[in-house]
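Our working data are protein records whose layout never changes between entries. The record below serves as our worked example for the rest of this section:
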Amino acid sequence: MVPDIAAGRLAAMFEAAGWHVITVKYGRQLTQLYERDGGAALRRRIDTMTNEEYQRMLRSSATELRKRLPEGSDRSRLRRLIADVDDGQLMGAVRDLGGHDLELLLDAFARPMP
């Protein structure tokens, strides 16, 4: 996971060199959760956590994720969102960054350039 500021700088650098840059940040499992009721809260939570906190989440059990993910003003919304997600899906979704989703990366490479 590259912090948004660094990712933006890298994208700008490659675009300045004439490259076509496509950001593939979230995998399909995570995106599916984002589309559910409360998904925007999950996206905010993941986008605002530090890299260190996210790294801890990657090593967490489902039980730990259910405790750690719901935080801040969106706590109840996040609890409702993940309540009916089974443990395997929850752990898979948290680990589902775009760079780990091979099919999503292949789709990005197949996109025509503007």
Notes: The chain has one domain: 4-110. The radius of gyration is 15 Å. The helical segments are 4-16, 28-34, 39-48, 51-58, 62-68, 75-83, 87-94, 102-110.
